[in-house]
Amino acid sequence: MTRVIRTKPEPYCPDCGAKMVLRRPPPGKDWEPFWGCNRFPDCRGKRVINPDGTFESDDEWDEHK
Fold first, then answer.
1. What is the DSSP secondary-structure string of 6-59?
2. What would the pLDDT profile of 11-28 be if each residue is shown by its tens digit?
3. Which of 27, 42, 47, 49 is 20 to 30 A from 5, alpha carbon to alpha carbon?
């Protein structure tokens, strides 16, 4: 089943400030979609997508570091 993800506007990377890209698992893979930095692999910043479609704020991200 495909889950609809509604997150606008796109977030900015908490590590480098670049725009982020929605990363989804390929068919047959079992991981949750997330926002990843568009500068990957130079920057590995990411943000978790919450069940309600929102993404982590900078405050939430700081708690993971």
1. ---SPPB-TTT--BEEEE-PPTT-----EEEETTTTT---EEEBPTTS-B--HH
2. 899 999 999 998 999 999
3. 42
